[in-house]
Design brief:
This protein has 449 residues and is α/β, with parallel strands linked by helices. It has twelve helices and 13 strands. It has two domains: 7-159, no CATH class; 180-444, 3-Layer(aba) Sandwich (Rossmann fold). It is 41% helix and 15% strand.
Length: 449
């Protein structure tokens, strides 16, 4: 079992490896799951001392996966995954039996040579006994495992759902007057900028500002824009699940609130930086001697893989909205320019800047690839000539409340990029109504309840 290779299986863009963990002393218990390098027990318990060992190695978003999901439906995809896991388990033990027989054959040939016994007869009989004992042992110690694996419909069945995402949610009132919705993180919230008149407690906790790009889009198009973005939001804890804020307040998930805006023709998404702990990674990079060491590189890759999977779930939910709004995904701007002289005192160097921009490029590639696979739009705001160390920066500086976040001019630049992307969206976003047909443009920083 130690030398038998794990068997690779794939379904719906998810690649996993299936094998067996080392036998345990207890008669039943969880299997072992390696989730991008993080080892944890499986949610299902298996009967017998031999239990599955599973490794999730890769998540892919591409047009083929999306076509499969839309054509076959979630049920067939789930069935494919469960069948693949069970088949991988069977293949693993077929290989394990062959390897056990190979070891036995080598030993038997050596024994037959020493004692001058008929090699073929002794080897055949011994290998047959070893195979029988091996197969019998598997049936006795792990007979129920294939059935259990076939009951696994999604990878979440193996690890469970994030406790925050599993909280029961209160369905809010319909929001028929909303024409566009913004969901996302601190970039979309306008973190570090003035709140504007009459902010709610949740606005203040999330850092939602009247200078956020949602307000610029509202003004430019005479729209009523619902801004649900919240600082530090991730896909799982913020957009799809509730978010516990630094002051202990709980923000309701953004996506279910957006679902109430059934007349909205546009949803803008800004997410990913907090999933990758971007601000923490940037600060660590500044104080470290180098940023491209193997440990931090592996950590970033694991975070990016995990984000890709969560992002895929969000895109699927957006694609399944019954009124089919246009969806626009915002890429992240580059906060660094040709000169970083204002950051040298904090430990930043051109080499470190290069590493950070490379990782930012990888995140943007995932954002663009996923959006394209689902037929959504992509906007790439450009801060060229207005980076951090320039005379007219679009980002907040090291001494500001939210370093590297957009300032008011940066939020306007993001809105401009979104505005330029609107005509190419499918379906076309709502046409701006005349002043006599609609309320005055505004943004709403409201949440469910």
């Amino acid at each position: 079992m130690r030398v038998t290779p794990l068997q690779t299986v794939s379904a719906a863009g998810q690649t996993a490896q299936v094998g067996a963990a080392m036998p345990a002393l207890s008669p039943a218990g969880p299997g072992e799951l390696d989730l991008f390098g993080q080892v944890m027990p499986t949610r299902p318990h298996f009967t017998g001392p031999i239990r599955p060992r599973l490794q999730l190695t890769h998540i892919t978003i591409d047009p083929q996966v999306v076509r499969m999901l839309r054509a076959d439906g979630p049920h067939k995809i789930e069935l494919s995954l469960s069948q693949q896991l069970a088949a991988g388990w069977t293949r693993y033990f077929e290989w394990e039996t062959l390897i056990a027989a190979g070891f036995a054959l080598v030993a038997l040939v050596a024994v037959a040579g020493v004692f001058r016994k008929p090699v073929l007869k002794m080897a055949a009989a011994g290998v047959a006994v070893v195979c029988a004992v091996n197969v019998g042992g598997i049936l006795l110690t792990a007979s129920s495992t294939p059935r259990m694996l076939r009951s696994v419909k999604t990878l979440d069945d193996l690890v469970g759902v994030d406790p925050l995402a599993g909280e029961p949610q209160t369905v809010g009132k319909p929001l028929p007057g909303v024409q566009a919705v913004v969901i996302g993180d601190s970039t979309a919230a306008g973190y570090g900028l003035p709140w504007g008149p009459g902010p709610t407690a949740l606005d203040e906790a999330c850092g939602r500002s009247a200078d956020a790009y949602a307000a610029d889009l509202a003004t430019a198009n005479n729209w009523n824009v619902l801004n649900l973005a919240c600082g530090s939001a991730t896909v799982k804890n913020g957009l799809l699940g509730v978010q516990v804020l630094s002051n202990g307040q709980v923000a309701p998930p953004q996506f279910p609130v957006a679902e109430q805006a059934t007349h909205a023709k546009l949803i803008v998404v800004s997410v990913g930086a907090d999933d990758l702990s971007w601000s923490v990674m940037t600060r660590l990079c500044a104080v470290s001697s180098v940023c491209n060491d193997k440990v931090s590189g592996a950590y970033f890759s694991n975070l990016l893989n995990s984000f890709t999977r969560s992002y895929y779930e969000l895109l699927t939910d957006l694609a399944n909205l019954p009124w089919h709004p246009a969806v626009l995904v915002n890429e992240y701007y580059s906060p660094f320019g040709a000169s970083i002289r204002c950051l040298t005192r904090y430990g930043m160097t051109p080499a470190k800047e290069k590493v950070l921009l490379s990782r930012l490029g990888q995140l943007n590639a995932v954002l663009a690839q996923g959006a394209a696979a689902f037929g959504f739009g992509v906007a790439g705001p450009q801060f060229t000539g207005h980076e951090l160390c320039t005379g007219d920066p679009y980002v907040q500086g090291p001494g500001d409340i939210a370093p590297l976040h957009p300032n008011a001019a940066g939020e306007l630049a993001i809105a401009l990029a979104d505005q330029q992307a609107l005509p190419a969206l499918s379906p076309s976003p709502v046409v701006a109504p005349s002043p006599s047909q609609s309320p005055a443009p505004q943004t709403q920083a409201q949440a469910a309840g």
